[in-house]
Amino acid sequence: MDATVDTRLRFVPQRRETWLARLFDSKAFLVTLCMLPTAGLLIVFLTYPLGLGLWLSLTDTTIGQRGSYIGLENFQSLMDDPVFWNAVWYTVFYTAVATAGKFLLGLWLALLLNHHIPLKAFLRAIVLLPWIVPTVLSAIAWWWIYDPQFSIISYVVVDVLHLRDHYFDFLGSPWPARWSLIVANIWRGIPFVAITLLAGLQTISPSLYEAALLDGASSWQKFRRITVPLLMPILSVALTLSVLFTFSDFQLVYAITRGGPFNSTHLMATLAFQRAIPGSQLGEGAAIAVAMIPFLVVATLLCFFGVGRRKWQQGGGND
Amino acid sequence: MTEPTVITAEEEFEVIAGKSNDRPEQLSWESRTRRVITVYIPLALFLIVLLFPFYWMAITSIKPDYEMYDYKKYNPFWVGSPTLENIRKLLFETEYPHWLMTTMGIATAATFLSVGASVLAAYAIERLRFKGAQHVGLAIYLAYLVPPTILFIPLATLIFQFGLFDSPIALILTYPTFLVPFCTWLLIGYFKSIPYELEECALIDGASRLQILRRITLPLAVPGLISAGIFAFTLSWNEFIYALAFIQSTEKKTVPVAILTELVTGDVYQWGSLMAGSLLGSVPVAIIYSFFVEYYVSSMTGAVKE
What we know:
Radius of gyration of chain B: 27 Å
Largest interface: A-B, 98 and 91 residues
Number of strands of chain A: 0
Strand content of chain B: under 5%
Number of domains of chain B: 2
Oligomer: heterodimer
Radius of gyration of chain A: 27 Å
Structural class of chain A: mainly alpha
Distance between the termini of chain A: 44 Å
Number of helices of chain B: 16
Number of strands of chain B: 0
Largest sheet of chain A: none
CATH superfamily of chain A: MetI-like
Helix content of chain B: over 70%
Shape of chain B: globular
CATH class of the largest domain in chain B: Mainly Alpha
Shape of chain A: globular
Order of helices and strands of chain A: HHHHHHHHHHHHHHH
Helix content of chain A: over 70%
CATH topology of chain A: MetI-like fold
């Protein structure tokens, strides 16, 4: 008892002793001090590089040589570059298909995990593994799964099930390679969507379903009229993040195909890297990276407001 | 079931409510089958698909070469004579231990830097409530939406100008660009959950604001600090593009980059060592994660909800 009184009393005499103590009690000083590290880091390594990237895209900088201003020349040459347009097209396709796949399967997995099942916490934990493990490392595992000679999928389909008579060539030609990458991306993204939506499902009050049951609603009606509208807020945030990070994906493609075969699987990010670092055309790489920005902005606005407005139309709470 | 079972309305209600002890067998069998088909089988399929690549990684890394490349003679899903040869090669014939230490060091330093900066920023935004705090919070959230893939080219030139190219410090300083926004948002959420009254009491008792932060707010925010730390550590461990672009010499590479650029040589891939390297590179993250899985899940969903 005495000890607690002592420490409480000890606060008092320390107060306002020196100019230093007074300084640390001034709110303006404290705010500046607290924001300084974050502001410094983000301005120097995020805001400034963003601007610098815009500037670089207007120059012909190469590695080791300071470039000069060349206007929109980089963009003009990209306009006539079929490899660039192919990358733009594949990036959009990759994002659309992979996001749709992730959300459909992720929602299904979330609904399954929302049942009363044994070992629920354990299942929830191991389901997250593909999301936790470094993407490049799991991508290497997929690379091995897609191996032309020793693919385990080919082995099962050809030698065990006898459904085909020759092995799949997953990464050797453009379309199979594109789909293989999308499958690997969906595999990696399902856990994030499932666990996020599961958290959303658990906030929905069971009494709503009970009320619907009394009113004679079918399970589809319950899903359509209760689950979906109440999931919308969390869905819109998860969708925005997922679209953003799928669009700017780099690791998976770089690890599995490096853009090949015949540049058919280049995403804008991998193309920017290839032109800028191994190709040492920093200006051109920066122009490709800058070309991603409008897509990112539109995708973000579309997901956020598109889904957000539907929530508002359905009379969801304004939380 | 030969004779038809007559179910009274009362019994049917009990079946629906799931309370009946002697339910008609047919109904219970039906519902159990239905449950198996609609819940357990899809769930099992999901688990198999989600976990198979890890199983495949693990089993490949302990297979001897003659088993790995001969599916006709040896069942590929099992290993006849497990060997540690691949792991031994990895640990003693490559610089793998070195890469592990480098990655660990960089991830730890970046984590402390980011969590430190984020705690102060989150405290200022959520608790000091200065003018424009909301806008600053929004700006930090927007910073989280800027993907590293559009930043790495200008950052590379910046790193070069600073003379930090090929130095681990470059990574320690650039990782906070995605760690700080995320941790700040996570911690703002945590600070919100701490009652403001506690700080008011301390203010009345004559504590200075720094004392309040140190003795009241921070101890209460420890769970938040832990989850921010785990997130920051796993995100830096997994980071790839900056490490690929800013580091050149073999001995300074991080694990994900080194496996892809140093172990993949020529046309013949050493799949055994590659898989062993991937497995060992995943283990530290998996261990940290398994200790803090509850924090991880709650903060991941919490951060999305914010």
